[in-house]
Fold this sequence. Notes:
By secondary structure, the chain is α/β, with parallel strands linked by helices.
Amino acid sequence: MQTLFSYKPYWAKRFGTTPVLPMSRAEMDDLGWDSCDIILVTGDAYVDHPSFGMALVGRLLEAQGFRVGIISQPDWQSAEAFTVLGRPNLFMGVTAGNMDSMVNRYTADRRIRSNDAYTADGAGGQRPDRSVIVYVQRAREAFKDVPIIVGGIEASLRRIAHYDYWSDKVRRSILIDSKADMLVYGNAERQIVEIAHRLAAGEKPTDITDVRGTAFFREGLPEGWSEIDSTDVDSPGHIEPKVDPYSMGDESTNSDKSQSCNKEINSKAGEVVVPFFRGKNQRAAKLDRTRTVIRLPSYEQIKSDEVLYAHASRILHVESNPGNARALRQRHGKRDIWINPPPIPLTTKEMDGVYELPYTRVPHPVYGGANIPAYEMIRFSITIMRGCFGGCTFCSITEHEGRVIQNRSEDSIIREIETIRDEVPGFTGIISDLGGPTANMYRLACKSPEIESACRLLSCVYPGICKNLNTDHSSLIKLYRRARELKGVKKVLVASGLRYDLAVTSPSYVKELVTHHVGGYLKIAPEHVQPGVLGKMMKPGIGVYDKFKELFEKYSKEAGKEQYLIPYFIAAHPGTTDEDMLELALWLKKNGFRADQVQAFLPSPMATATAMYHSGKNPLRKVTRESENVTIPKGIKVRRLHKAFLRYHDAENWPLLREALKRMGREDLIGNGKKHLIPAWQPADTGKYAKGDATAKKRIFRTQRTHQFKSVASDDTKKKSSKKIAAKSVQIQKPGSPSGQGKRR
């Protein structure tokens, strides 16, 4: 495998590095360019910062010697806006931007959002729905014979036939609907660099079929390849026993999990025997994985059969480890989509090279002094790693970035902090976040590369932390200490989501974090308290949260700091009953939490929880027509009720909750005492939503970009903290965004 920066530079390298990638012909003229080799089309405002995907890809291609132009948020009503930079010599790359365009545009209740964090001044409506499809159509109108490659989160999560929440139906692969030539999925550095050099060498897109992390059209079976049916793969072997969600995990469970991983390594090179999925066809287990493709049920089959949809989702997720994944193919009408295995993760040296390219770290000058909210959030933050091995079923990070953690070196991170300190306008000495998709997975990995490359489990931390997982946080502690000792740096905060079940294995890390890197509030995500729901989420039991809370409060007190945990919870997740939400409401009341804004489950494409939502089946185990049925809270009424339970203290929700409690036989929770969840009386001028008042409906149920919890833990702390807590608002990550940097997963 060729490394990322080992390619011979393209001849246009002689033009040197641009101050900023051009967005107009005038800028191209100033650079002495007669044309662009590659044009990137994005639904985001162009910010020359590595947290913005098109800036990162553009600068990387520039480092390979290509002349790269950017078309940002073009007018999609005609092809004219796609011709502003002329015809590209090699290809056009198209992305919806850092977020899925449908998630960006609509709330979990399918209501239109009024703003867009990735647009100048937060203006909404600057990109079309299903942006990738629309942009490709217009680009094809502009330049009929130019190869078009799609990528980014929207394309990545729609690479196969998928359930689409907004239309409530199964849609075809976005490669079919967009009619692009090729799709790159995941973090696309390896793919896009290799494709660019091969196109520059004269190859056609149809000839490039061996690049990992790509999807394309292919008919027939190449010579030397074998095809197996997905039903020959999905036959369960060992199934993990249920674990007490209130325990910290016992040795027997972890040991079993470790043994199951170890058994997957076969003495013969290139062969992996998988006990978790014993195929009916024993021949399938012996085939060379590198030349085997799995035939998924066709689009037409899964469109009409929810059980087959759940089965296909299960196969897709199991075939996601770069060390052992096989190619997949799926029929759409008369055409086959072929999906190569995921890309090999970047090495630390390659990660350093990508993040130390010559970004200006500011928006393109065309925006003047406009405020771009997403940029303001990440302006002084630093990505230290990628990927997540948590496997949460509702999250899209694993499907996009993979389970293998890709780390930057400590020296590279320190150099970036110094660059921000010395060059980024407005720096006040505070690094707003030192993190990534999960703040404390830096340098955590399987203890054995052989086991890691053979493992087929969907999570390294569920139902318990795998015995083979290295949970040593010492590298992260060392990084924190070095970062905060830099001259000119006053504070280094950690704002990314924290995996607290990992943190409790290292009390010294919790102490370091709480003492030096919490800005008064730390966000964590228990998501729920009921074992059944947590099992469908693949999240740890609430007992682990209690353990972390104990450590957090202990070290905060030792540091002489008044600090608070901000827990997140999800309403209406697959597997959640009304009774489950009632228990969560009682837990919130008991622990003195009042949710100011709440989040309802949003079924993002390709997530395991989305397969549950659509099919009513549990793809975490073998899927058959007789297998486990999952309770699905669908429809506006039940989703409204589940959100109301999270906001039990809001008088607007009391009529709805009273009705539900009576129906559930829990009238004992209605009254005016401390033991009651809601009062029997109703304040004047409240409860309008339950009566159908449109104004109140809009006011109460519009989805915000923030979460906030007000603590009412006790009378003696309430007076001191209520004003401070009420003023604090924590920014969150919407589902379908590729990076958890400083945000929620």
